[in-house]
UniProtKB/TrEMBL annotation:
Signal peptide as annotated in the record: none
Pfam family of the protein (one): Metallophos_2
InterPro entries, A to Z: Calcineurin-like_PHP_lpxH (IPR024654), Metallo-depent_PP-like (IPR029052), Pesterase_MJ0037-like (IPR024173)
Domain of life: Archaea
UniProt xrefs under SUPFAM superfamilies: Metallo-dependent phosphatases
Protein's recorded name: Metallophosphoesterase
Naturally occurring in which organism (per UniProt): Caldivirga maquilingensis (strain ATCC 700844 / DSM 13496 / JCM 10307 / IC-167)
Amino acid sequence: MDKRGISAVINGDKWLILADTHVGMEFELQGKGVRVPIQTGRIVSNIVSWAEEEGASRVVILGDVKHELPYPIESINEVKLFIENLSKSFEEVVLVAGNHDGGLEQVVNSIGLSNVKFHDSRGFMVNLNGKNALLLHGNSKPSIEDFEKADVLVMGHTHPAVVIQDEHGFVTKRPAILKIKVDKGELGKRLYGRELEGGELSIIVLPAANHLTIGVDVASTLTTVFEAPRTILRYVEPWSIQDRIEVYLTDLTFLGTLDVIKKGGFERVDFDSM
């Protein structure tokens, strides 16, 4: 199954971690003349199926829970339905604000469900498989206090994907998960303009959980210098550390590091040596 997220033990419980569900995206497509059935039920069904497969009883969505829409009434109704249905299937639902989520906190408060929690775009800290993990959307800098504590940073926002071509010339684009290893001191200096304690920080970037969007090709977008103002990856400077960016399909098939993929190949794993 195409699982667009990861499962992990957070604070002793099994969680499903997702990003960028973009509920209501089909309304924008309809406004552009593309007739797409409402997808809210399918998104909920997919999330519940992924959680059941992983044995997760809780779910967190790392931003862009809803899509930016010119149809506020339709959008609010779909977002409410989405949240209410998730709350029936999970012991706890945690929503982190993204750049598309203006007004989401008010929607959550209006529903008033005790098992639905909301965090702003700076995210929140958890114990993830024994490590200090910072979960956020990726469009805003976290607090410096949280950043200093973090061993792992998990984000969405950039919709990573990879283009694959087979020997017959058939080309497909698939959503991808990135694992980036950075020097925490160097990244902290770029983010906050001050010296911070160094060491290795792992950054996990999740794909969009909405099947209407595959994502953007990382071999094109992350291998050249960019100045996007609203993504933490700008400060990571991925174009300079391509050999430290691991690329996975959503079933966790390892494709190789970004530098290898950029050259048009995939790494071969020697299973006999594992």
